[in-house]
Amino acid sequence: MADTIDFQRLCENFEREITALFDDLQSGISAREDSRAFGAMIEKRITESWESICTILKTDFVQLPGRRTIFDFACRRDTVLFGFDVKTKDLDSTRYSDGGVCAIGNLLKFLANDNGVFMIVEFGHTQSTDKHNGRDLEYIRVAPFHLLPENCYRIENLGTGQVRLNYTLNQVWEEIEWNRSITRFYDMFTALAITHYERVSRDAHKRIKSLQDFKANGYTAFKFSR
Questions:
Q1: Residue 192 in contact with residue 184, Cβ under 8 Å?
Q2: In this predicted model, what pLDDT tens digit does every residue of 86-99 receive, in sequence order?
Q3: What does each C-alpha distance from 104 to 107, 155, 172, 186, 216 come to in angstroms?
Q4: Would you give the distance in Å from CA 156 to the centre of its chain?
Q5: What are phi and psi of 116, to 5 degrees?
Q6: Region for 76 from its dihedrals, namely left if φ exceeds 0, alpha if ψ lies in -120 to 50, beta otherwise
Q7: Which of 131, 138, 129 lies closest to 42, judged by CA?
Q8: pTM of the predicted protein model
Q9: CA–CA gap between residue 15 and residue 48 (Å, rounded)
Q10: Cβ–Cβ < 8 Å for 73, 50
Q11: Could you write out the DSSP letters of every residue in 150-172?
């Protein structure tokens, strides 16, 4: 079961093997001209070496998923499916990053229905100062989504509810609860999701009332109620 796994050691092992793929970037050699291309290069390098990484760490390689999954790479240990989602974080303070993860329903289906552990692999990068004006890798962090501190999670009203992260893994690294059970995570996360849906429901009823009033008043003026 996932609750018996030494997650801290597992993350350290995966972080070590993934980091070894990017030694050239960590030594200050930039590889691409913009952050989007940099992210594509990151995924390509891991894809090409994922099977060998799984072998080194004594996990069962899982074929690369299709686009409909919430993760980019996967492996199994015993009955547990580990799905790894790669996030590239531009550390330039003027760059916007929404911390987007996935939809609420897709996350819970993977964790509960697929006996999955959702792993975040975060690459922090900056603009290089070399003549090629590329990207330099500052750090790599690997952590299970369900062990992050509570204040890291938020939900936005997109689609059926979109999970976001308020902070990078690097910012909250010392606060990760390595021994938190999946049940404790569910208690925390479902409460957050219920609060979100209750708020969305209240807002929707207010908007319905605004539209009804607009119609009743002969479409003469409109505004959404606050």
A1: no
A2: 998 888 766 555 66
A3: 5, 8, 22, 12, 37
A4: 14
A5: -100, 155
A6: beta
A7: 138
A8: 0.87
A9: 16
A10: yes
A11: GGGEEEE-STT-EEEESS-HHHH
